[in-house]
Specification:
This protein is mainly alpha-helical. It is built from 15 helices and 4 strands. The strands form 2 sheets. The chain has a two-stranded antiparallel ribbon with strand order 1-2.
Length: 332
């Protein structure tokens, strides 16, 4: 059982991070798309579509961070100094976005300034998260269990590529969310944008996958050695199928389907990254067992998670159920 505790905790943290990526991803995506509509009415509708959800969505970022600190303190102590600058910029951008969100509703003459601030906060947050993901996937320099790199080791061509790739990814989630929640001109605009963004996302996924396979022998062996290739090949095949269904659903079918397929696409991409780096919590040297806190500690905090996680999930489900349906019915 003690050997399974790190696996269970890895699953809990991966689940929390995934929910954050999907849930906060779509409202960050709406922020990225915010300035694509000039009408203040359209922007009001876009912002109102995420108003009941955005602050609750950020809860899952805390779940992932707190879980990492408690269950894998070595990984937390290694990754934080490795990613300190993008983490701090991301957190400041999140605060900036939150302030812009609240002030925009009250402002009149300065509303344009807060529109720009809302867009900037969402864009910078997304870009920083992409850079952190790219730096994590590429690997962190560790010697004797301690971060041994410099303050800017995270800044590489690959991490910048992933940072830029996440922008259309979150924007796609935001656009498909607006297809489901909005109507009129905003919905029509979101459909058009989603098709462009889907092409960008698929191109980015292909480039990042090829980069990892070409420049990382471990990833190449993981995916293309036998019998792994037979077990893992369904992941890219299903991703291509999800993209095809998403494209078709932007023209016909239920309005919720594009958002569902965008989530499916993110799920498969997330699964692919997880497969590529398992079981390392700090690639390429620290595994989940190396970084795990004592079994007594993991078991104790797991009891707390077993109590609180269902409550948070229940609250999240309740909020989305209460505010289901279109935003602002009657708007042209």
């Amino acid at each position: 059982m003690e050997q399974m505790l790190p696996v269970i905790w890895a699953g809990v943290i991966a689940f929390g991070v995934f929910l954050y990526v999907v849930l906060d991803g779509f409202d960050l995506g709406v922020g990225i798309l915010f300035l694509s509509r000039e009408s203040q009415k359209d922007r009001d509708l876009m912002m109102n579509s995420i108003a009941p959800f955005w602050d609750g969505n950020e809860t899952w970022l805390a779940v992932g961070g707190a879980g990492l600190m408690g269950a894998f303190p070595l990984a937390y102590a290694t990754l934080l100094p490795a990613l300190y600058l993008p983490v701090m910029v991301m957190l400041m951008a999140l605060v900036f976005r939150g302030v812009a969100f609240e002030f925009r509703f009250k402002a009149e003459r300065s509303r344009g300034v807060w529109d720009l601030a809302f867009f900037a906060g969402a864009t910078v947050t997304t870009f920083c998260q992409g850079i952190m993901l790219g730096a994590f996937v590429q690997g962190v320099k560790v010697e004797k269990g301690v971060y041994a790199g410099g303050a800017f080791d995270w800044l590489t061509p690959f991490s910048i590529l992933v940072g830029f790739a996440l922008l259309p990814g979150y924007a796609l989630l935001g656009a498909t969310w607006l297809v489901m929640k909005a109507h009129g001109y905003v919905q029509a605009h979101a459909r058009r944008m989603a098709k462009i963004l889907l092409l960008m996302v698929m191109a980015a996924m292909a480039i990042i996958s090829l980069w990892m396979v070409i420049f990382d022998p471990g990833v190449r062996m993981r995916w293309f050695s036998s019998p792994n290739i037979f077990w893992l090949m369904p992941v890219p095949v299903l991703a291509a199928l999800a993209a095809l269904v998403l494209w078709r659903s932007l023209t016909m079918g239920p309005e919720a389907r594009p958002f569902q397929m965008a989530i499916a696409l993110f799920t498969l991409g997330y699964l692919g990254l997880g497969v590529s780096r398992w079981p390392y919590v700090v690639p390429p040297s620290i595994t989940i067992w190396d970084a795990a806190s004592p079994p007594a500690t993991q078991g104790f905090i797991l009891v707390g998670v077993a109590i609180t996680l269902p409550l948070v999930l229940g609250y999240t489900f309740y909020v989305y159920r209460v505010f289901k349906g279109k935003t602002g019915e009657g708007y042209h």
